[in-house]
User: Fold Triosephosphate isomerase from Armatimonas rosea.
Amino acid sequence: MARTPIIAGNWKMNKGTAAEASALAQEVVAAVAEKSGVTVIVCPPYTVLHTVRGAVEGSTVKLGAQDAFWKTTGAYTSQVSAEMLKDAGVGYVILGHSETRGRFGVPEPEETIKHYGETDATVNLKVKAVIAAGLVPIICIGETLDEREAGKTDLVVSSQVAGALTGVTTEQAPKLVFAYEPVWAIGTGKVCDPTEANRVCGIVRQTVRSLYGVEVADSVRVQYGGSMKPDNAAELLSQPHIDGGLIGGAALKAADFAAIINAA
Ligand SMILES: O=C[C@H](O)COP(=O)(O)O
Assistant:
């Protein structure tokens, strides 16, 4: 089955002033104006969603968010619901990014803390809330270096996929997007070998197949993320199980982001 490639830029906690966000979003819109046949998404910080919404309006570039809470409203200080994101013009939501998942319950030194205790259970609640709001979740999964070296990659990835999908129906599943992001490849410049990235994206698809059957498995889109750059994108994106990319650092420069999109 032909799946439409999907490239998402995760700006993380960057380009968060209105001026920066507006400039980058406008550059992305201009850089991909002639490109068709690819779903292009930008995921800025919450504070500039409105700004970026205005910048991408009327273009093919879609608006995404970096997380969502599972409750719709209430006394949940600091949280943002999927319903609120929908109202803000968001169509896609990154969930379970490794920078929000917990790891082994080991406290980290303050200067390096960047994990917020996300578990498969909270990712699952968020996936269901995002689907209920009519938005598309981009579900992140991936192993740490320790897990890879212990030979646990396939187990970690398949259990994260299955854990995210409890209670998600066969009717809801075809639209899902997954992002396989080996944690050791994120922001390190150490990209996963394309053949291995394809193999693990195949594990994601196989897990979906075991839960929902072959048609759904053929429909879901699986991105690779982790140091994808203009010079390695074509080889990664030509792999049969890799339908796109979740891009961090290279999404902060419109020319690099566009080069990756053009390789899809
Ligand atoms: O969400 C994006 C990923 O964490 C990849 O980040 P990166 O491209 O900077 O390695």
In short: The longest strand covers residues 136-141.
